[in-house]
Amino acid sequence: MTSERDVGFTEFVTANRGRLERAARLLTYGNEQDAEDLVQQALTKLYVHWPRVARGTGPLTYSYRILTTTFIDESRRAWRRHERTGSLPAETGVPAPDADTRATVLAALAAVPPRQRAVIVLRYLLDQSVEQTATLLHCSEGTVKSQSAKALATLRIRLADVHTDTTHHGGTS
């Protein structure tokens, strides 16, 4: 016998798992295995709180909060800290970048600390406002703005370094 809780949770997961997986792939800079693990951990935590979350007005927003918090917590574990490569999540309606561009962007994203990466993913890839991002990450709007600025600066430097290397070593840009 399936409970009303299980039906509601299953409907939510069916409708939103793709969004959560895309966000997780972006947070894990394209690592499919880590993204799947992250989504599973987040959904487990969400299920525990589902009766309260389901009564609220934003289960998806709450899911993003759990996802980013779990990602930040997991990234603090020493055994998770190693360089990874993977592919960017597919974007509906946007042409996929070529393999070199994808690898370059993932490498640059990997250089961004986890909390700053969470800000970048939420703000610029999931189109959350500064206020929404602050709420999701349990921090002030000023922190979101400063973390965003630092993350973008790191990305610019990394991407500029790659561009400089390819133009000085016979690569294309």
From TrEMBL:
Stored CDD domains: Sigma70_r4 (cd06171)
Gene Ontology molecular functions: DNA binding; sigma factor activity
Keyword Transcription regulation included in the entry's annotation: yes
Domain RNA polymerase sigma factor 70 region 4 type: 105-155
BP GO annotations: DNA-templated transcription initiation
All copies of domain RNA polymerase sigma-70 region, residue ranges: 13-81
Keywords: DNA-binding, Sigma factor, Transcription, Transcription regulation
Gene3D superfamilies tied to this protein: 1.10.1740.10, Winged helix-like DNA-binding domain superfamily/Winged helix DNA-binding domain
Similarity-based family: Belongs to the sigma-70 factor family. ECF subfamily.
NCBIfam families noted in UniProt: SigE-fam_strep (TIGR02983), sigma70-ECF (TIGR02937)
Protein name: SigE family RNA polymerase sigma factor
Taxonomic source organism: Flexivirga caeni
